[in-house]
């Protein structure tokens, strides 16, 4: 049995989007029928020390209070083991946080909707459990964070003791750290760091990661900030990093998005060149584009969420069904 990340959500810089302090409450569906977990907190984007107080974890009638602590910028903090009711179908986490500079929105396939004081969860980043399973990281942008394909795949893999965690951030780029404000300070990087830095930080806070699924680059493409050479350079940096960490990686093709207001034929030509390069250089490529493409360069009409870029739930199910679970298991 090894401490393994079984759930996580990617943090981002939220200083300009979030109130300064508040009570944070999350109710999650049971991730796995385990008896012992640890909560993992991080201050990935914060510029100031963050205080976490009145932390509790509740399953059915069992509630455990944990000591207050603080998290310095870039620090990762793991709680002492928490013993829980393995039969509980809901897990509730409550705590008080200040200096809300690094966190995520509550939009997550495993988090139940409820009334909250804050718009973002600050501090918490992952949950670990003692298990014989392994963690798989899905590194991506809104096409990953939207959970259309990750959520059905998570349900399937958890039955096999494999824990796919969604590390998507909408608006995130392969090449650069990015934000929606003039400030470039880390606490305001609402779209997160560049892909390689995000992956490095992720592996610092996650445990027993076996594979990384890399599905990113579409924002660089539609923002007209990508070339074939820059894509190749960054992808090679990511794969070399994974190799140094002895972690397997899985590349995914860039999906079509003609019809979107930010896309044009020149960018479509580059998308095809990128996918051709991926196909020539990565034998086990997951060809998301082939699954969702209808007319050349366009999403299938029944897969289109409406903006001609993002998948709907039907498309997500199609992707999840065609992804080989044998590869994920390493068979």
Automatic annotation (TrEMBL):
Stretches assigned to the SGNH hydrolase-type esterase domain: 138-313
- Which Gene3D superfamilies does the UniProt record give? SGNH hydrolase
Q: What is this protein called?
A: GDSL-type esterase/lipase family protein
Originating species: Enterococcus hulanensis
């Amino acid at each position: 049995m090894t401490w393994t990340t079984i759930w996580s959500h990617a943090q981002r810089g939220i200083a300009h989007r979030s109130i300064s302090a508040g009570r944070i409450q999350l109710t999650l569906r049971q991730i796995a029928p385990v008896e012992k977990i640890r909560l993992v907190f991080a201050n990935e984007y914060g510029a100031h020390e963050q205080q976490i107080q009145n932390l509790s974890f509740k399953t059915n009638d069992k509630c455990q209070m944990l000591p207050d602590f603080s998290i310095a910028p870039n620090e990762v903090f793991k709680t002492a083991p928490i013993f829980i009711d393995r039969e509980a179908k809901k897990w509730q986490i409550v705590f008080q946080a200040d200096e809300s500079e690094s966190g995520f929105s509550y939009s997550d396939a495993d988090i139940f909707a409820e009334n909250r004081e804050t718009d973002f969860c600050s501090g918490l980043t992952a949950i670990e459990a003692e298990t014989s399973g392994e963690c798989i990281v899905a590194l991506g942008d809104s096409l990953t964070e939207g959970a259309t394909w990750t959520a059905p795949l998570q349900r399937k893999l958890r039955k096999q003791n494999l824990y796919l965690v969604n590390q998507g951030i909408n608006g995130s780029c392969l090449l650069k750290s990015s934000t929606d404000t003039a400030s470039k300070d880390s606490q305001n990087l609402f779209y997160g760091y560049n892909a390689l830095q995000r992956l490095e930080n992720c592996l610092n806070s996650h445990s027993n990661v076996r594979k990384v699924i890399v599905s990113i680059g579409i924002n660089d493409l539609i923002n007209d900030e990508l070339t074939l050479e820059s894509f190749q350079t960054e992808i090679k940096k990511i794969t070399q990093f994974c190799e140094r960490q002895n972690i397997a990686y899985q590349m995914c093709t860039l999906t079509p998005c003609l019809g979107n207001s930010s896309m044009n034929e020149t960018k479509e030509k580059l998308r095809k060149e990128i996918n051709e390069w991926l196909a020539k250089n990565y034998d086990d490529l997951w060809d998301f584009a082939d699954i969702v493409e209808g007319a050349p360069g366009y999403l299938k009409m029944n897969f289109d969420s409406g903006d001609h870029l993002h998948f709907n739930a039907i498309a997500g199910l199609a992707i999840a069904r065609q992804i080989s679970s044998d590869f994920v298991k390493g068979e």
